[in-house]
Amino acid sequence: MSGQPVARGRFITFEGGEGSGKSTQGRLLAERLAGAGITCRLTREPGGSPGAEAVRRLLLEERQPFHPLAESLLFAAARADHVKTLIEPALAAGEWVICDRFIDSTRAYQGAGRTVAASVIDQLETLAIGACRPDLTIILDLDPRLGLTRADARRGASGAADRFEGETLAFHERIRAAFRAIAAAEPARCLLLDATADKAAVSDRIAARVSDAFGITPGSGAAP
Ligand code: T5A
Description:
This protein is α/β, with parallel strands linked by helices. The chain is built from eight helices and five strands.
């Protein structure tokens, strides 16, 4: 006799510019969901699976420039590996997945930042993820000057800026505008939040939206 089919897990993504607090808030949400008895897979892009982590090293550590199309293809390749080997199997097994960056980062960084045509970004997105779309996307909105200052402070004096952190302010402002436009275009999926508020206040707003969206009440979580 076969058991009951397992309900698909929920897929939540965090998006925003450099240093906007995605990793911090993803971790806090996972802790709060654990308090409600929900175990999450906390993952990231680029990376998250062994193959995708290898592509991440190429994308973030390699100093040679890539043509914007080649860069877009590399993000799509990493994403396809991540979706096929980690995200889809976890969701199918009923686990929740929280991912630090996903498709909207390619739309913003390669689309708006590198000016790769939207039709190309759309095709790569379809190829890389198929039907594996986020149920909820939290977009953390922050002036890029503040985000880059936060990212610099966290990296410390010894860490070098990666290929994106070293880009111009105009580049990061285009990215911010692109994330805001995505949130405005897809309000059912996306929640745009002011990331200048303190960590606990941002976390409370995210928990409230998760509660509304999925009908569960995340716990209060650990202190940020
Ligand atoms: N990229 C990625 C693309 O170009 N295309 C793509 O398709 C994808 C997937 C990834 C790079 O790749 C690019 C975008 C990126 O440039 P990464 O190293 O993963 O690079 O970098 P980020 O994702 O940008 O991660 P960061 O660590 O820089 O930023 P986070 O995760 O947003 O910020 P977080 O949580 O680490 O916080 C940074 C600092 O700020 C503090 C934290 O304590 C920490 O010190 N902080 C706050 N301080 C005050 N108030 C708050 N509310 C705070 N929240 C956090």
